[in-house]
């Protein structure tokens, strides 16, 4: 994103977004760490294409079914705001789109197949992103 913003320039922005960008990056990284620690405490797999070991539904996972992806998305959005770069904002949006359509779709099919009704009930009460 840094190289892209330097190559393309930033373009006009409505306001200084430094504080909002830093806060968004920080929130995203905190969410990533918290969700990762929850997986570690549950002793479950973190890798997308490996079989899930446990269904984690508490903590950050009570608010979002995919808080780690949400954390990455927030961090990317924050960097785009810090850089004041429209192309970087497009990178963040592309990340969300690909993650939602490819990674999350894959994971949710696997979770539904492995955990059945428990996952379906969790998905019914917990939003995919926020």
From TrEMBL:
InterPro entries: Phopholipid_MeTrfase (IPR007318). It is a multi-pass membrane protein. One of its GO terms (biological process) is methylation. Its main location: membrane. Keywords: Membrane, Methyltransferase, Transferase, Transmembrane, Transmembrane helix. This is Isoprenylcysteine carboxylmethyltransferase family protein. It comes from the Bacteria. Pfam families: PEMT. Its EC number is 2.1.1.100, 2.1.1.334. The keyword Membrane applies. It comes from Ideonella lacteola. One of its GO terms (molecular function) is protein C-terminal S-isoprenylcysteine carboxyl O-methyltransferase activity. The chain crosses the membrane at residues 20-39. Coiled coil: none annotated. The keyword Chloroplast does not apply. It is found in: Endomembrane system.
């Amino acid at each position: 994103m840094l190289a892209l913003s330097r190559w393309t320039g930033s373009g006009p922005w409505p306001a200084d977004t430094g504080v909002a960008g830093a806060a968004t990056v920080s929130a995203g990284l905190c969410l990533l760490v918290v969700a990762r620690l929850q997986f570690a405490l549950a002793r479950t797999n973190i890798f997308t294409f490996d079989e899930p070991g446990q269904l984690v539904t508490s903590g950050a996972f009570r608010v979002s079914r995919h808080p780690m992806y949400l954390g990455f998305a927030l961090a990317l959005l924050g960097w785009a705001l810090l850089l004041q770069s429209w192309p970087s904002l497009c990178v963040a949006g592309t990340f969300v789109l690909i993650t939602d359509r490819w990674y999350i779709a894959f994971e949710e099919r696997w979770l539904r197949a492995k955990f059945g009704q428990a996952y379906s009930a969790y998905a019914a009460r917990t939003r995919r992103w926020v």
